[in-house]
Amino acid sequence: MSAAGTVTPTPVEAVRLADPYPFYARLVAERPFAFDEALGAWVAADAAAVRAVLGAGALRVRPVAEPVPAGIAGTPAGEVFGELVRMTDGAAAARLKGVVAQALARADLGRAGALAARYTREALARGGDVPCEELMFGIPARVVATLSGLTEGADREAAAAIGDFVRCIPATATSADHRAAARAAVRLRELLGPPLTSAPAASAQDTACGPGPAGAAPDASPASGPTVPPGPTGGREAGACGPADGSAPAPLRDSRPGTGGGTPGSGASASDAAPAARPAAGRQGAAGTAAGLRAATGGGAPGVCPGVHRGSVAGAPYAAGRANGLLRELVGAAERAGCTDPGPLLSNAIGFLSQTYDATAGLIGNTLVALARGADAPDTGALVREVVRYDAPVQNTRRFAAEPFTHAGSTVEPGQQVLVVLAAANRDPAVNPDPHALSPGRVNPAVFTFGAGAHRCPGGELATALATAVVGELRRAGWSTTTTPAYRPLANARIPLL
Ligand code: HEM
After folding, report:
1. C-beta atoms surrounding 373 within 10 Å
2. Stretch 411-438: mean pLDDT, rounded?
């Protein structure tokens, strides 16, 4: 309770306030790095604390004892979750992060923007109420699905499935959410597996893959869940990526005519994974083989998944030769890095969609709200980039101490949690002059919305291109929204209900 008698929110509750920024400003000024009794966690709010926390190897993205949320452990959703670079630390995860980042760095942003603009025009041309859900969530996800090689119909199905998949991520997820996420994970593997196995090699002049932009954090790579029931899932090792001993990497793709992809040889090295992270006995050693990926996707013949051509999708969801773009780059980068296990590649291809989903919806929504509140910005791209800082769609993230971590004289003990308030650091006057002004075209802003350090987001440019295209089309159509929307009751994503 404040002196004025108003109830002080927790930094998690602040995410959905109409204006959380006065509260964040107080945190930055008065409690830049402090333990919050109500949350039971440390809160890092100013730029210095946020940088220090995100750069600390002692702090991990998941609790050491729970690498996969209990509600989805042992399900297909848990297996995907446990292989996401976003959700894992350790040397293998760092190398896989390099692969993921290389693929995203080569995403065709022009095509992404053109597709997002086209889908937006098509949605508006249908008439009736403006379909905000579709514009904010569906279109960015569809574009990423299309960039991943899915064709009309399959792209929509993937966009719908990823909405179900992300439901498992909040701590508040129900058992119905977990079941929906598990079904979605199965379907997403079916949809994305064949384009991944049939991705042609990236160009030969591509640069060699080093350890990647993510510095290798210390050991303890968390696990995927146990074997996926029911049916064959392939014998993948969580996060296995390239020989840790520096031996020559095995190629990822199978060069046999007709297979179109996959990986010969066993290849996968899990020598840097924690022993507890090893897959349960019974998972077979098919890692690094075309069969491994086909099994992981539930498929049979190369490039063909049972059930994929049935249901709502008319015709082939991905035509031969369409395997290109993001997944082609992913496969090429994996080959160069010696990431011989296709399973984690498939999980991180699904991760492209899940990482896009809520965050890009928030960026589109928050930009529309900024316009409704009178933002003066003829250049939509410049406005979107400033909204990234000014009204961050991802307001906070978390870290979990595996070892003691000390900042500014305070020590986080192993087992404790840190809430990292990215949106507060964005408005720290120590790093951004006049931080509460919305100034499109701001020169060299310090922006924490995409994280920092080993887990920094590699999708920022893509997200900005998508949001710019969708908002640009809405502006051209003369559409505007309310200045005072309610916000979705989420713990870290700030997404207006439009
Ligand atoms: C406005 C949109 C987006 C925002 C605000 C955002 C924000 C973030 C943040 C804060 C992190 C780091 C989390 C942490 O360190 O705890 C992250 C990680 C990540 N993001 Fe994004 N993201 C966005 C869009 C995207 C898109 C479109 C993609 C790819 C298609 C993407 C891919 C990733 C990946 C792969 C990671 C994991 C990186 C790692 O853990 O090493 N993001 N994102």
Report:
1. 13
2. 98
